[in-house]
Amino acid sequence: MYTLSLNHSTICIHFPQITEFAAQFLCKTMIRLRYRRIEIGTGDGGISNLGFGKRGIVTSCRAVLLPRFGGPEMLEFRDNVSVPDLKPNQVLVRARAVSINPLDTRMRSGYGRSIFEPLLPLILGRDISGEVAAVGNSVKSLTVGQDVFGALHPTAVRGTYTDYAILAEDELAPKPGSLSHVEASAIPFAALTAWRALKSTARIREGHRVLVIGGGGAVGFSAIQLAVAAGCHVSTTCGGESISRILAAGAEQAIDYTSEDAEVALKGHFDAVLDTIGVPDTERMGISLLKKGGHYMTLQGEAASVTDRHGLAIGLPMAAAILLKKQIQYRYSHGIEYWWNYMRADAEGLHEIRRLSEAGKLQLPVDKTFPISQVREAHEAKDRRQIPGKVVLEID
């Protein structure tokens, strides 16, 4: 027996005697009629392939498009945005909540223009929490109906501000059961950025001293919690409003940069410095506080800004030359390693982030939620710094 489910105005029809050929014909007919979601499954809970290679077939959905760069008014909430076919390693996720990251507002304003302008319109968004709607043929670790969370790479063109997002299998993990979709959606991108710096680059371990410059933001606070969980001694600079939360997370020292001289207050030297601010003063301070052989990592690498100024052909080689020059300079002058760090997919990291989140050792508080239809208002609030913490878009 086959079941045909149409998620346009929720219709379910049972076919006790239908053949696979007839079911396939019905499915293709309904796609032509522009039904958004079509599932054909066996009555006992199994699924018929029908030649499509996935359980659910979504041809269009709602999404927030960015047709050109600018302010929040550029964001357009549209119906009937097409959904690409899944590649074998990809997963279609029915989004329930997506968080707003600083990268989203910067990309909307034109950051990375040299890369993204030829690809407009874009769908912004990196974080997601939702349910698996369909899987590619080679996906083994996730199943349809499973709650998942994850994050896309910074250069992804089709983001998560949409009913149905597409991510690679290694960009997703089962959602922590103790967290809501809103809470889970705030974590992956920031935590994976911090993981890449501390675990993949600096290779922190128990007993290391770690300094996080700018511990009050999402990446900084994630880094503090990851370092504490690894058994490190953590110090940080932050605004006064974040001190109690940071100390409660296990940091040994939290310095209010608005009222104290951090260089005077910080004692000793560190094995790793993660600089989430990345201005010349914080770079100078971070490097001066490192031990020989230590790692300085900044999130404010110059690759995108240099390519925006000079174009890809000149900008990318120029950015690589700038990075190499700094690496050689600091290796010989201070005996330290210098890095620009970016988020990237890391299945091992995401599963460890999930484990820590489940155990209550890694969480990012959400300050405010908006329905996705109010995405302009949410971006405007972030631009005006009316909401200092995490903002999440809910998708009904």
Automatic annotation (TrEMBL):
Q: Name one Pfam family in it.
A: ADH_zinc_N_2
Q: Name the domain of life this protein comes from.
A: Eukaryota
State which residue ranges cross the membrane.
none
| CDD domains assigned to the protein according to its UniProt record, in alphabetical order | MDR_like_2
Domain Enoyl reductase (ER) positions: 70-393
List, alphabetically, the SMART domains matched: PKS_ER (SM00829)
**One MF annotation (Gene Ontology) recorded for this entry:** oxidoreductase activity
- Which InterPro entries does UniProt cross-reference here? ADH-like_N, ER, GroES-like_sf, Lipid_raft_assoc_Zn_ADH, NAD(P)-bd_dom_sf
Q: What is this protein called?
A: Enoyl reductase (ER) domain-containing protein
Task: Please tell me the species this chain comes from.
Answer: Solanum lycopersicum
Give the organism's phylogenetic lineage. Eukaryota, Viridiplantae, Streptophyta, Embryophyta, Tracheophyta
Q: Which gene encodes it?
A: LOC101255066
